[in-house]
Amino acid sequence: MKIATRVEKVPPSVTLAISAKAKAMKAEGMDVLNFSVGEPDFDTPKHIVAAAKQALDEGKTRYGPAAGEPKLRSLIAQTLSKETGLDYKSDNIVVTNGGKHSLYNLMVAVINPGDEVIIPAPYWLSYPEMVKLVEGVPVIVTTGADTGYKITPEMLRQSITPKTKLFVLNSPSNPTGMVYTPDEIRALAAVVVETGTLVVSDEIYSKIIYDDVKHLSIASAHPESYKYTLISSGFAKSFAMTGWRIGYLAGDLDIIKATTRVQSHSTSNVCTFAQYGAIAALENSLDCVEEMRLAFAKRREVMFELLNAIQGISCLKPDGAFYMYINIAKTGLNSVDFCNFILEEKQLAAVPGQAFGNDDHIRLSYATDLITIERGIQRLEEFVQSKI
Known about the structure:
Blueprint: H1 5-8, H2 14-27, E1 33-34, H3 46-57, H4 70-84, E2 93-96, H5 99-110, E3 116-121, H6 126-133, E4 137-142, H7 153-159, E5 164-170, H8 182-195, E6 199-202, E7 229-234, E8 247-250, H9 253-264, H10 272-283, H11 287-308, E9 314-315, E10 323-327, H12 335-346, E11 348-349, E12 351-352, E13 361-365, H13 370-387
Parallel strand pairs: 1-11, 3-4, 3-5, 5-6, 6-7
Antiparallel strand pairs: 2-8, 7-8, 9-10, 10-13, 12-13
């Protein structure tokens, strides 16, 4: 039977292939060190788990509103209003099955066949594939270390055409961990407003930033940018709730209504009792988030210092998230070969940069313990030195 053309355009995930291979090797008893995982290695905080258990005990197991539990939508709106200084209401929020789902719903709701979507590279690997699945056209704008892997206002302006429908912004970034400065965000917002370009700001890592770095949402970066901005976020990274699948989209009322309509005909509501865990996350102290952030900060320092001591590779120090994006060009290997070889020879699992739009980079996650980090970087050094 013939598969739909839009699906055939989407390639198999190289990251899943590497991950499957690593799991198979580990099942055979090999000492595989996994740096490919994009999720916190902490347990979900106990008060969040307790709230979900209580919801189960209280019978909160039935269908709920397609847009999400009213109390959760209200709390998300209040949180965003406090963080951005803007006036978000419950009607401006739709709760989704994870942050990824919020982005896909948005693509379905606003992208017509042939519409262009501007995506800076390196990018999170699902952005262009989502665009292809709704028959849009990904417009990839390649950035480099010279700009901190960030798109500039000039790059953005030059990429906008009459077919442009959406600009995807991700800060803090997966895979680079870089954060746009407030001034950089304001400059991008000026282009968005000037050109009337819709932007979705993926802010899933906004609570995981380091040093004196400041996160500014593009929604509040310009007096008129709010009306052009959709914020995509969720609870997965900051609260170690990756498997709970609780995300959200916030912004223009008509677009939120449209994405809710899409959701009502695809997944209906988000898991009801899981939403009560998210309610507890927002109603209680953020001390648990800070504890995880501090642990990530320490790991970042250790990994960055160890990586910088390896001749033949280079990386910028990330401002947020929990990834190192490493230039491996001097090894002469492309990223897929590099990751396959290092997995086979050193039992170290990494993600090839090809998945993010840069075939001369790899991504390592430091969402793992310090001992594993030290052992893993030692193996990386041995591998690199054997190739240069």
